[in-house]
Design a protein that fits this description.
13-stranded antiparallel beta sheet, Lipocalin, Autotransporter_adhesion, OM_autotransptr_brl_dom
Amino acid sequence: ARASGHLLGFQAGLDVWRGSFLPGHHDATGVYFAYGNSDVDVNGLVTNAAATAYVPSSTGTLNLNAYSGGAYWTHYGPGGWYVDAVLQGTYYDGNATTQNARLPVSGSGILTSLEAGYPFALPLGPAFVLEPQAQLIWQHVGLNEANDGLGPVDPGSTSGVSGRLGVRGQWTIERANGQVWQPYVRANLWRDWGAQATTTYSGGDQVPLSQQATRMDVAAGFTAKMDTRMRVYGQFGYQFSVNSAETGSRKGVWGDVGIRYAW
């Protein structure tokens, strides 16, 4: 089978507290809301009209909405190192559709993340810093049982952990008008563990799913301080699977743009 599609979304949030408990350290906590939509087409092999051979054909679509709310805490230490923690809850709804059936999809999930980084100055351009990063993410998703018109379908629930080791190189360019531009490049190695689920059809037939994948992404982007209140940012990246022989090929492109404004 082969799946292709797109993911669109937005996020808005704000810091609710900034302060310091130790000299040279400072903290920020905040909340955010995010919305995402995924629209995926699935193609697979089906029997032809004469039932004599398999032919590639569209087998269905999945359209899924995700509504998320979360809170974060970031601690900055001397020299620019940081630790960032996130807790997020999500509600899902959408539809999985084939030529013969339609399954309404709903459920909920929870995600926690812990990330750390430490920058080092290197003589590779204007105020260049190289920042190794590490991150752990735990996620649980549970989807509700529904009926696709042919019988009950229980997608079940799953929990998994993703780990990331990455590095980011960033330059800082200060302009005469007071603007500060920070272009960067980065690369990450990801590993997913433990995501296993079993979908049950009509109370009996079970289809297990296990996802243990290794993947990489590379990206380039920028942040720009336009004045004392407004910052803009954007990035564009490419992701691809490392062990495609084990888990199947996976690749995609992505990008985002945003504005941060301080009142």
